[in-house]
């Protein structure tokens, strides 16, 4: 028996084993409407589970011990580290809607690893202006100062490392 997944831009049939990893699919009657899913990313997810025989990834150790997702997770086949940030975000949203929590955690870690150990200048250089349908984000000096004030913990590990290096010099 197959499960019909109704995405924003079409329909796709999925193996019934998807119900063993997705709470939303397990509670369905064989047809699931997904508001966040597009066919391309849904195909990636279904191929991911086919490769993994519908086994969920292990829960990741926290705090993340590396800024490379392939150091945290056997990524040789999946190549998550090479997916563009917006694709990781979209796949994360689909996993969230499907209620596949281990994969939500994995993709949160993949996104976090993109930003880990980078200061705002590095992030600005790598990502520049970031846009979504709902919002436009650009890194401006006044935003950077506000972020440093409101969320000092973001720079905490960076500042500790900087202080350690400065003492050695």
Structural key phrases:
52% helix; mainly alpha; two-stranded antiparallel sheet; SKP1 component POZ domain-containing protein; 5 strands; Potassium Channel Kv1.1, Chain A; 2 domains; three-stranded mixed beta sheet; 169 residues
- Please give the alpha-carbon distance between the first and last residues: 66 Å
* Count of structural domains: 2
Share in β-strands: 5-15%
How are the strands ordered across the major sheet? 2-1-3
Order of helices and strands: EEHHEHHHHHEEHH
Give the full name of the CATH homologous superfamily of the largest domain: Potassium Channel Kv1.1, Chain A
Protein name: SKP1 component POZ domain-containing protein
Organism: Euplotes crassus
Description:
- It comes from Euplotes crassus.
- This is SKP1 component POZ domain-containing protein.
- The chain has 169 residues and is mainly alpha-helical.
- The chain folds into two domains: 2-115, Potassium Channel Kv1.1, Chain A; 120-168, no CATH class.
- It has nine helices and five strands.
- It has helices at residues 18-21, 23-26, 39-51, 69-72, 85-98, 101-115, 120-127, 141-150, 153-168, and strands at residues 2-7, 10-15, 31-33, 130-131, 136-137.
- Strands 2-1-3 form a three-stranded mixed β-sheet, with helices on one face.
- α5 runs antiparallel to α6.
- The chain starts with a strand and ends with a helix.
- The relative contact order is 0.10.
- Residues 131-135 have low confidence and may be disordered.
């Amino acid at each position: 028996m197959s499960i019909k997944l109704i995405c924003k831009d079409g329909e796709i049939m999925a193996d019934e084993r998807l119900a063993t990893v997705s709470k939303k699919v397990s509670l369905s009657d064989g047809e699931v409407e997904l508001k966040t899913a597009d066919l391309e990313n849904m195909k990636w997810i279904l191929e991911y589970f086919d490769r993994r025989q519908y086994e969920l990834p292990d829960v990741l150790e926290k705090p993340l011990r590396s800024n490379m997702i392939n150091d945290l997770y056997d990524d040789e086949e999946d190549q998550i580290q090479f997916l563009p940030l917006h694709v990781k975000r979209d796949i994360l949203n689909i996993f969230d809607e499907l209620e596949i929590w281990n994969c939500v955690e994995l993709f949160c870690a993949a996104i976090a690893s993109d930003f880990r150990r980078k200061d705002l200048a590095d992030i600005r250089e790598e990502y520049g202006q970031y846009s979504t349908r709902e919002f436009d984000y650009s890194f401006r000096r006044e935003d950077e100062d506000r972020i440093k004030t409101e969320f000092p913990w973001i720079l905490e590990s960076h500042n500790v490392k900087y202080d350690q290096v400065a003492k050695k010099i």
